[in-house]
Amino acid sequence: MMKPQPLATLCGAALLLQACTVGPDYIRPDVATPVKFKEAPKGWKIAKPANGPGRGDWWRIYNDPLLDQLLAQVAINNQNLKAYEAAYREALAVVREARSSLFPTVTAEPGITRARSSGATTTTQTAEANGSWDIDLWGKVSRQVESDKASAEASAAELADLMLSAQAELVVDYFELRYQDSLARLLNTTVIAYERSLKITQNQYEAGIVSRSDVITAQTQLASTRASAIAARQSRAQYEHAIALLIGKAPSELTIPAGVLARTIPDIPITVPSSVLERRPDIAEAERKMQQENALIGVAIAAYYPTISLSAVAGYSGTSPLVSAGNLVWSLAASGSQTLIDGGSRSASVDEAKAAYDQSVANYRQTVLTAFQDVEDELSNLRILKRQATAQAEAVRLARQGVMITLNEYQAGTSAYTAVVTAQATALSDEETALEVQENRLVASANLIKALGGGWNISQ
């Protein structure tokens, strides 16, 4: 019987050799990071990533219970997210599959044969175990495992990025819907005011003070505003349908009661620029893809080195009793192979892997630059829109005052009705613009939180 020491020594040597892993070890490349955001005005609170509003349910900063209920359903029912979650589980399975190549494969082959020859019947039994092991001397399998693991982590970051995008899209659609609600309310209120103006014009016409054209003009203005109010309902319905899709429901299954656009914009603490690298899942995805491509360089380089395989058979084969010294069988073999001429295939594979890595580095740095641009864009939007809101509020105040003055002058007979129509149209336009500015400010605040990474961080 073979003593176990030589086999154990051979396996131990193989394990030690597997520590020789070729290819470059991954080091995250440097990326230029600004010290501060250019568009961050004085007064913004600088918050650490762990303490900002973008932790967990970041949308709760708007204090809207209905919005909270809708957002909670995105992760549960959104079918696009379910598909990417399945892709992430698939990536994890690929890692386990690649890791299994580091270990020997053992199969059991029991059998029994009954035969008759020369007038005698014999029964032969076998109970053997076969083992094979492709030794990962140069770390090819290890690098593949490293690459697949980084790919799975990139998939997880992609899932988080899609989750954040879906959440932000729902918040924006919700604000758009509330804008349509507020616009419809404004138009309906304006319709009531125009009805009063029409009544005044009719009284003036019946008194013989004004012409029939003033009445027609007032009626036309009233009908046009009513049509605009109806059109607002159409746009609202489309946003409601979009929200239903984001939470994984058919449009017929969701009815959002009418409401109004929020009047206040929450203060959003911002982080220092360097923390954006840890808060944005798209940056984490790009960074993981760099390690994935870096490991594949090692896989390509390992093809230059020979492959060595071990195989063994051990067991019993013979007649009854099967388990006996005379029926013991075993074998142990080692084989190797080395490519001598490949026409430059391996060097081309290495160059291809290096080029793919360089591409991933460029993509990573571009993703970082885009992230900083996103934050700067939304900061400037909030700053400028805040000033615009103040100016627009003054325009609305003056326009309302102008309507009152021209309407009084018209009743006194000192002004034509065209002046009333012009003043009313200007007031309505200013009111609509004020609503748009408020909506844009809310959308910019949601986009800023998304740009800062939302409720995600690199530790996840």
Outline:
With 460 residues, the protein is of the alpha+beta class.
CATH topology: Outer membrane efflux proteins (OEP)
Could you state the order of secondary-structure elements as H and E? Answer: HHHHEEHHHHEEHH
- Mean pLDDT comes to 86
The largest sheet, given as strand count, sense and whether it forms a barrel, is: 4 strands, antiparallel
Structural class: alpha+beta
Count up the helices: 10
* Total beta strands: 4
Oligomer: single chain
Instruction: Give the termini distance in whole angstroms.
Output: 54 Å
What are the segments in which pLDDT stays under 50 over at least 5 consecutive residues?
1-7, 43-54
Q: What CATH architecture do you see?
A: Up-down Bundle
How much helicity do the residues have? 55-70%
What top-tier CATH class fits best?
Answer: Mainly Alpha
Residue fraction in strands: 5-15%
Taken together, the total number of domains comes to 1
Radius of gyration: 37 Å
